UniProtKB/TrEMBL annotation:
Biological classification of the source: Bacteria, Pseudomonadati, Pseudomonadota, Betaproteobacteria, Burkholderiales
Top-level taxon of the source organism: Bacteria
Protein name: NmrA family NAD(P)-binding protein
Xref: InterPro entries: Ergot_Alk_Oxidoreductase (IPR051604), NAD(P)-bd_dom_sf (IPR036291), NmrA-like (IPR008030)
NmrA-like domain mapped to chain residues: 10-243
Amino acid sequence: MTASNPLPYVVFGVTGRTGAAAADALLRAGQSVRVVVRDPAKGRCWAERGAEVALADLTDLASMTRALTRVQGAYVVSPQHYNREDLFELADLIAGTTARAAAAANVPKLVALSSVGADRESGTGWIGMNRMFERRLAETGIATVFLRAAYFMENWMPMVGHAMRTGTLPAFLAPAQRRLPMVATADVGRAAAALLQEEWKGTRIVNLAGPQDYAPNDVAAILSSMLDKPVDVAVLPEAEWPQALAGAGFSAAALAGFTEMTRGLNGAHIGMGSDSSAIGRAGTTPLEHVIKGWQPTE
């Protein structure tokens, strides 16, 4: 299959999971693709697959505008720098630069990675950065889909590694029996690629969940079945969160953002049903598949 329009789709975040999945899906569909990276070495594997490679810094208007010029559309992301104290200020800078570059380049449409809860004005922690991204892009008037993803299934992977070693699954989400929408990052990228290839105008909000909801108890049950041994859930009280995350490299501001976000999830302040204007879609990847494909890092 070959693309009828020679102009490419631009994909940011290809060194991460959702961007890589989006670029892969577009290439498999026969579309022209331009991937955006900071390091040329990170683009070589995509060039070998026939993608164009553009170099840009997300805070540099000139390079971002060049990357977004003469395209069919773009999948844009705002990576969050959890090691920095100014992560919210940096996120706003990236959002503003992306918006100005997209407007200067006359991009016809955007799909922007966001999060469930981005409709909330406060009490969402890290998700506030997604809200910034949405607001900056909405100000451009460009046709945009805000792809609000549910809780990433991959967020469980550090705890899964601990459970495999010890038989105990630590959990920040509570209570242990309460199910929440979760989605695989591969499904997020595939949804972004599909949306880019659809015809639409104006602003749309798409909530993306997985094929079913999961509770911490369900994660433990999946692991127990895989390992053929009991796995228990240990819900961590908030007072223990800083110690549990001590090795994650979070700044104090990032830890505060994580805490507020997790409180919002546990208290149902953050949820799929809070924005009645959102359109619901579902991915197809079950949590079992994500866990089985997980590889521990050294």
